[in-house]
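User: Quick one: structure for sequence A, then sequence B.

Assistant: Sequence A:
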Amino acid sequence: MHLHSLDAWQHEHDFSTSAEVKAERRTRWVVYLTLVTMVIELTAGWLTGSMALLADGWHMGSHAAALGLSVFAYGLARRWAKNPRFTFGTGKIPTLAGYSSALLLGLGALWMLVESISRLFQPIEIRYADAMLVACLGLVVNLVSAWILAQGGGHHHGHGHDHGHAHDYHSPGAEHKDHNLRAAYLHVLADAMTSLLAIAALGAGMLFGWGFLDPVMGMVGAALIGSWSWNLARDSARSLLDAEDHREIATRIHTAIEAEPDVAIADLHLWRIGAASRACILSLVTHEPRPVEEYKQRLRSIPGLDHLTIEVHQCRDERCLGRAPVKGSLSAYHP
């Protein structure tokens, strides 16, 4: 066999999707919008002497830095996609950025909580007109940013391959989990929620003199943002540690492979390697082994299995296909 004939059985490990390219572009536009708003607020704050505008301007700067992390992660994943040091590609770089953003979001929520409690016991004078202007501006900017990030589209795989070890089973119906985009969206949503709560509190303060509502709304916002941060950190950490729940896909694999009574799955490993891609190692047992391609064909209808390895073991014992709970049930896979 000539070496060049192996090309048909080899493939790149670039599991990025067109949806991630679009997400990177949208996130970059949000960063630009945030930076422009920051400059406007800092300039206006300096010219008018408004500390509220200056404070929110610097807040917008930290906001742009957090969103910039998402853009940076997309860029790294794309740049290193062909680097062989990444065994299963760079699909988890955006997930790592999403986890880092969740931590930053959590720290922001903690700061809001501490600051709100401090102001509840030691109230400060509020310049309602300036504060209301900042809150309204922030709400508009963040709602526009959220709208930009929410503009989705179809996601399709960027490559195809077919060989004896794995095959590209990706289809538009594959589940798509982009923790990086979710982190960026939660950042702007958290800011929008903070602005909305601030507007409500400032309105009540202007009309009824209820200054205490400002720190109270801050604590409510901190609790809500903290909850979002925890959920994002939990989900992205599970993906990073290959501990996601793949029971639905595992069930479909069992159904497809064990359609014949003489075939049983002995071991099944599933883990995510991209926003819409999973790797799978499948070990099956049968008395009459068939070509690997035949077993792969049974799994073609399952979307997102983009790196598949199948081991076929011949059993010479009549009892080897006994349906033990660990071998033939939904729990017969290792996440």
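Sequence B:
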Amino acid sequence: MTENWAAVSKAINERVAALGWKQRELAEHSHVSQAIVREIQHHTVERKRSARTLEALSLALGWHPGHLAAVLHGRKPLASGETGDEAIDTITARLSAIEDRLGEITDRLDTIAENLSALLRGSERRDTR
């Protein structure tokens, strides 16, 4: 399987620039040595890296843990939260939509409860006069 370390370097550099980070910050966030980050970013030393290194860098950059491994091997990276299993990803997306809708319903119910409480307090004040 062909490895494309230049693509990994490009992906990292674009993401680091978008985040406004320096090399040191990526090293700190990923817990990968700055020397290794430098080698990968500048594509100066092409050698096999630990899957954990690529995973740590991916996670630090806010990507799916397998993002850089996918880039390395010429595959389409998964988005955060995706598993690569279409059925599971569909169910996860639907559950997320349900959670969002439940949040909206809860907010509306809270507003109704607050309004009802205010009405009842106002009614009690009028009854005590």
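The chain has two domains: 5-72, 83-129. The CA atoms of residues 27 and 59 lie 12 Å apart.

User: Thanks, that's what I needed.
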